[in-house]
Amino acid sequence: MRFSKVFLSESTDASLGVISGIKRFPSREICTPVAFTYTKGGSVPHLTREVLEMAFDASMPVVMPAENIAFAYEAVKVFQNGMTSFSGLSESIFWCSQFDHAVNSPKSLNQKDKVALWTRFGKKLIDADSYMDMMEAFKPDLFTVLSNNDTNKTSSNKQTRKSVDQSISLLQKCVERHKNSSILKDTGILAGIQGGYNVHDRTRCAETMSKAEVDGFVIDGLFTNGLEVENITFEDIEPVIKVTMDHLPKDKLKAVYGAWNPDVILKLVDMGVDLFDTSLAYLSTEKGCALNFKYPKTTKRSSEVLETVPTKKSASSECNLLTNGVATVDKPDDDLLVNGNWCVINTMPGGQPVFSDRIVNSVSSEDTNVQNEKETRKDTNKTDELNHKSKLPKLNTPPDPPKKKATPAEVEEKSAAKYSSFEFSLRDPSVREEFIPLDPDCLCLTCKKHTRAYIHHLLKTKELLAPVLLMIHNLHHYQMFFENIRHNVKHCGKAFI
């Protein structure tokens, strides 16, 4: 496998590259930045082979986590034709990663020379030799070496140091085995840069692994997989990404796993990252959500990058909110005018007026006394009325009816999946009468033939077709996102415009 840069930006570290020299496909090239299609157990989630061929190019590159296909090792070893042929994806370029980054991993409990893989049968401790045996059986076109990535933002210095030490040791063993393997000699190999959020350990790991005979690097150990990564901002990872990239060769492949926020993806591209995966499309589908962010092709620098497709407005969107969440009316009635100025009709704790942007008249002490006297008289009248009512005979009024217990459907509506700025939930009751495509501008099979209301119905009735349609849309949307990234890097010199 070979990787070469074909375009370098002058303003950022963004670049366009080409992966070529694949042994199984000598004439095929992959343009970067690119997102390899995430698979589970050797299959694109929710999509059969026939649906995949109908909706997409069946030869698109795929990433298969070793955790998900370890169960098939013995069968594939006997089969002898590799994992892609075994799983019906023989036309796809195959990248074998180590862990499933779409599933939250439990504490690994690694040993000194072994790393835990969480397979469908539970935890499996594996050393470098066993891992390379799996790679020889699976025959990937590109694979990530075994490493300890069990770190995140809360990891201690001891944990990050242990992660780096073990990963360096495993890399040396895997590289040596790769050199001596007749099966893997033409296979691309990526080293996993570990160290959590510890800049010192990141630097040490990057400096050591940059000297190894590998084709590229995976910047790993930033999160413990699953949905956690959606909430990580670029500001959280920028220092460790920068120090890592500064110590890696500029001409080699760089990869990042995970379902990152699209904004973070754009900034990672501008820092020089080439490879990603489509786990965000899968996780959005699992939540019953559709990706709806907009990132168009452009030749001009614009301050707006991501826009959301307009969805049904809620009532709260028609009013302005103060910083503490108290709503204010845009245009008060004219009868609230006092001497030509707006008066305060309510106050919040601390005396802050609701109409905080209006001029408030001062009230004279004489007016205040008159007002206080009126309020005192009202209170006296209310007290007399209550005393009179208390002497009346009590009537046998029926008790209030018991509160109706919410049905499972009502509970599901109230607890509909929360969604981010780049996606919207099809479980939300507000879309049940929206007879429009998920994205009016999308050309995927789902948006051409089906509506939001229909997919909402499928989700409510738990039909198997619902995740199929959502996966088609989300995967297509994510692929178009990267196509536009490549276009904008070429014409604007950067992805985050």
UniProtKB/TrEMBL annotation:
One annotated GO biological process: tRNA modification
Names of required cofactors: Zn(2+)
Keywords: Cytoplasm, Metal-binding, tRNA processing, Zinc
InterPro entries named among the record's database cross-references: QTRTD1, Queuine_tRNA-ribosyltrfase, TGT-like_sf, tRNA_ribo_trans-like
UniProt xrefs under SUPFAM superfamilies: tRNA-guanine transglycosylase
Bilayer-spanning residue ranges: none
Biased composition (Basic and acidic residues): 372-388
GO cellular component terms, A-Z: cytoplasm
Localisation: Cytoplasm
UniProt xrefs under Pfam families: TGT
Entry binding sites for Zn(2+): 442, 444, 447, 473
Biological role: Non-catalytic subunit of the queuine tRNA-ribosyltransferase (TGT) that catalyzes the base-exchange of a guanine (G) residue with queuine (Q) at position 34 (anticodon wobble position) in tRNAs with GU(N) anticodons (tRNA-Asp, -Asn, -His and -Tyr), resulting in the hypermodified nucleoside queuosine (7-(((4,5-cis-dihydroxy-2-cyclopenten-1-yl)amino)methyl)-7-deazaguanosine).
Similarity remark: Belongs to the queuine tRNA-ribosyltransferase family. QTRT2 subfamily.
Subunit structure, interactors included: Heterodimer of a catalytic subunit and an accessory subunit.
Protein name, as recorded: Queuine tRNA-ribosyltransferase accessory subunit 2
Originating species: Bemisia tabaci (Sweetpotato whitefly)
